[in-house]
Amino acid sequence: MNSLLGWVATAVSTGAGSYGDLVKKRMSLGITVWDSVAITNFFGFFYLLFTCILTNSFPLQYNYNMVVQILITSIFKIVSQACFYMSVNLAPLSTSIPYLSWNSLFLLVTGYFYLDEVPSYLGVVGCILILIGAYIKQIDSKTKELNKENYYRFNLLGKNFKLSGGFFMIIVSLIWTYTTTKEKHIMLHLNLTPSFLLLVQRIFISFPLMFMRYLLSKKQFTEAFVQNFKSFSYLSFIENISTGLHFKAMELLYVSYVTAAKRAGTIIMSTFLGYQYLQEKLTNKCLISNLAMAIGIVFIVLGK
Known about the structure:
Distance between the termini: 12 Å
Structural class: mainly alpha
Protein name: EamA-like transporter family protein
Organism: Tetrahymena thermophila (strain SB210)
Mean pLDDT: 81
Keywords: Membrane, Transmembrane, Transmembrane helix
Pfam families: EamA
Largest sheet: 2 strands, antiparallel
InterPro entries: EamA_dom, EmrE-like
């Protein structure tokens, strides 16, 4: 029964997350990365506060260790969220999101050593199939040619450099490997609910960033907040559903399984959402990679 609930939570989380990625892509132009991260987490704080009050999710005891561990994950999440926004701003969803599939392979290792999770052979094969499917999409030069990708350019020590959206998404994948493992460890060993953990993270992320942005660029930050009030509140609502259910699924299933299935589902859905709403192009390799990842999801579910 727990497994079924875990997979249902994963499926709903995937759908909400994919739609949230589409909203982020549409909102990424004209708004700074740091404003996006700060304001989205600010709205998330109020949604989660209401959820915690409604479900009585506050812990009976608070301690220094709990606060420090959540603070550390929050700092890493600031970087990962900023990199995510930069990636979807530079590259189409169909070519940037697939890089997140590496996250599931990394979690097979960290989950085994850090959380004592021993995946089945079918589960490992499923994760590998998802990675292969994502790799096919990453090397599909025709897709990259059809869906033009921009680069982040900068000068360092007199030399010009450029970074792609995929580069930033790989950073996201590496950071998520650490934070996902750490978050499950915190929930298990400190007996915290997903809602409360997310609530505290939103506090550590949103309020310092909003204060910093207000001091550095009051006009720009205020305009972004006021003009996109409805969009940010809507995006935050979707993200809270996706992240909250993802955390709940991690309580019930192996973290590598949940993450692999969600990443694959997100990649598949982002391909079709990008085609439907963002005029991104599809190729035969794109469809083959989606099929490989879909089979991988089936293997993971059967492997549990």
